[in-house]
Amino acid sequence: MYDFLIIGGGVIGCALARELSRYNATVAVAEKENDVCALESRVPAAICAARSMGCGDPVAARYAALGEKMFRAYAVASDIPYIKTGCTLRFTPERARAVAADCGRYGIRFESRGACGTDGENPEEMFFPDAGMTDGCDAVYALRENAAAGGAEFIFGFSVSRCERSDGSLTAVASDGRRLTARRVINCAGSGGGPVARALGDFIYLRHAPVDMEVVRCDKPLGSPLFVGRDMLLPAENGCVAGTVGGCIPRSVPVAAGCRDAAARMAAAAGIDCSEPRACSVLRTFSDSMIFRPGNAEGVTHVLGAGVGGLTAAPAVAADYVRSAGLVRKNGAIPAVRRFPRIRELSAHERNALARMRADYAELVCAVPPVTFGEVREAVARGAKDAAGAARRLLRAGERGGVRFTEAVRRAAAERRV
Amino acid sequence: MKTDVFVIGGGAAGLAAAAKAAERGAHVVLAEPFGLGGRMLTHIECGVGGMTGPELAARLVSGMRASGRVRVLRTAVVRVSPDKTVETAGGDGSFVCTAGAVVLACGGRDVPLSGTGTPFPAGIDGIFTASEALTAHCLFGKRIGRRAVVIGAGGEGLTVARRLALEGTTVVGVTETASSPRASALSVRDCIDDLRIPLYLSARVLSVKGGDRVESVRVSSGSDEFILRCDAVVCAAGRLPDCSLYPFAEVCASGIPAVDSAFMTGSAGFFIAGGALHSCGSPGGTSLSDGSAAGRAAAAYALGGERIRASYSLTAGKGIGYVVPSRFAVGSEFRAAVRPSADIPSGYVIMRSPSGELLFRSNRTALCSGRETLICVPSEAACGDLIVSAEAI
Q1: Angle at CA B219, nearest 5°, toward B218 and B223?
Q2: Which residues fall within 8 angstroms of residue B91, CB to CB, at 6 or more apart?
């Protein structure tokens, strides 16, 4: 029996697992897909609290503000890539006023850049200097590895179909019959949160609302991400987007390739037919956030819809949960797992040294971007189960890697089995 | 490491550029991560002198080696800096090489699956892009499936269909959204008619269904809707130029990097040739001549600092998708590759001055939006800015 069972291996799930693994508690994470952050696109993610502001949701806004402030230290502690870039957003005038009010309330700095009229509407542009940018997938992988190093167990292919209660504990039963028992259960299953909540005995229905947005090609270099739209985020080719659950998937092309895949998967997970080509107008908007909403059964908590930027709020949500659970920190040092080297980020000298130590870091399996077999082996060792998972760890958004890459993943996976 | 000319990519354009630059006396370093020959190795039919792709590749490689001034590195290029320093990774090692001129001949990239307009579900096995299918089938000897559907009847799609059909995979059908195949009539005859592969025109793929592996494709053609049962889908949606290794190069509105008639970009000493620049059709054709010209110019630049003053511009007008090059030098004849934006069965390519004066008209040709048309512009016409347009008769 575990102390905590986390249902959902996405951003919030992995952040919670990492926090809890530093305390004297046994943690299990049950994830439906075969890997963490399986519905995440590979496009850069913005850490910008303003996206959760002005929606009339004080809980989400508060956690997002806290999370943005904590994120830099959080990134350093878990070896998540993070740059503070600032962020420009455009809002409708009413929303801009609400955002300004919320930012004052929660202590987020902003500069108002005035109206920027484009085709009939008059959106207001606001700049948030404390916002930053990270890689959503890398962040979740780093959190997962740190959680696993701290003792958390990750169980994949576990789709919760019902729940059994006995005194002091709950048992989640999967559709294939496997069982996981824990004293406390946290539902952070994101797009699958509705069915899981109902399996746990709570009548929660997440509202799916398609949202009309335009895509604008971003001409600015990646110094300051530019988000355009009616108070939602859009991917743009040079810009940046958070294609996470609760993020936005735009309607038209061109779209960052990884986002469309993510949209299709989210649509499939939500049971929405996304067969209309070129228009994936799927957006999950939660009617209100359910951060730490207690369930009917004792020991059940729901953490769903942590604002539009789940990753932004994740550090604050995890820290808060742990504080409220009143746990004791573990003794001794907790191993910190570092991100493994990607050869294209090293200097030539470092690359040669690495290749001398391990021959598989000289064997190229993909040319654009350059990826070696050593990296593929490492990705598989750290949890990539198939070519798509390895591509999410090693390549850029939407890239597939080609035949040699797929073969290399197969080879590395076969080695591990043997 | 220092060299005169650094060639990135060992495909048709790269090999031709390296050979030509070496012939002109430059020291050349060529970086190719995988096989020398690139896409030539997977295409049997190349249209050059009746040789197959691999034969042509072997001939180019031996020609290049014969000059003795080319060093071939089996490595991938990571970064090219504006001061002509090229950094490589993997394979033979990580080198930092300073060059007098750099030629980017890394080839184009397939249109990613999510950019094709066909809804491909994620996580399903058996969906390939055209290059993936050809590489797996030809270079790795792996059968991609028993029954394949090819989406897209351009040159690439028909080549894939033909190769698969010849070597044991049943090609259940080739679908094409346009009302006529976008490849040359010769390709259509070789691939479709000879092998009797069903060709569905004006057909749009509505959905691709399957469990772990793809099982069927639903196609709508006119008012019909039908299902093709298959276990592999090849998406041959075309190739995109790729100059991501030159982040400082300017790109035209059409997405094609801006080069002059010597294939030099706006940044002096940086050249792009072949598939990395524009859609070249079957390998070994335009890319070879592009590469030769770029290699010659790169050697001239690196050795003698020869500069072409390309001061006039060539812009795409009505009926044209893009035109390569976008700048040319006054008074010299040059060859332009023009991509029409619509199919014109019988028309002319016309070049006018900005004031509307007709300066050049090509011979009557069939213009197809699926491939480029090559025009030789004489020096008399190259006397000022030109606007290219396509007109039907």
Answers
A1: 125
A2: A362, A363, A364, B33, B73, B74, B75, B76
* Each residue's pLDDT tens digit, B131-160: 999 999 999 999 999 999 999 998 889 989
Assess B240–A contact: CB distance below 8 Å, yes or no. no
Structure tokens at A395: 């390549």
In DSSP terms, which residues pair with B386 in a beta bridge?
B314
Under an 8 A CB cutoff, do A264 and B121 touch?
yes
> How far does the CA of residue B358 sit from the closest CA of chain A (Å)?
36
Residue A132 pairs with which residues in a beta bridge? A47, A84
pLDDT in tens, B50-102: 788 889 999 999 999 998 999 999 999 998 999 999 999 988 989 999 999 99
For B32-50, what is each residue's pLDDT tens digit? 999 899 888 988 876 667 7
- Residue A54: pLDDT band (50, 70, 90) is confident
B294 and B361 Cβ atoms separated by less than 8 Å: no
> By C-alpha distance, which of B128, B114, B130 is closest to B238?
B130
What is the secondary structure of A135-195 as a DSSP string? EHHHHHHHHHHHHHHTT-EEEES--EEEEEEETTEEEEEETTS-EEEEEEEEE--GGGHHH
DSSP state at residue A52: G
**H or E segment at B29?**
strand B28-31
Distance (Å, rounded) from C-alpha A337 to C-alpha A354? 19
Of B93, B118, B123, the CB nearest to A388: B123
Q: How confident is the model at residue A253 (pLDDT cuts 50, 70, 90)?
A: very low
According to DSSP, the β-strands at B127-129 and B224-229 are: unpaired
Choose the mutation target among A39, A43, A217, A368 for the interface with B, i.e. most B CBs under 10 Å. A368
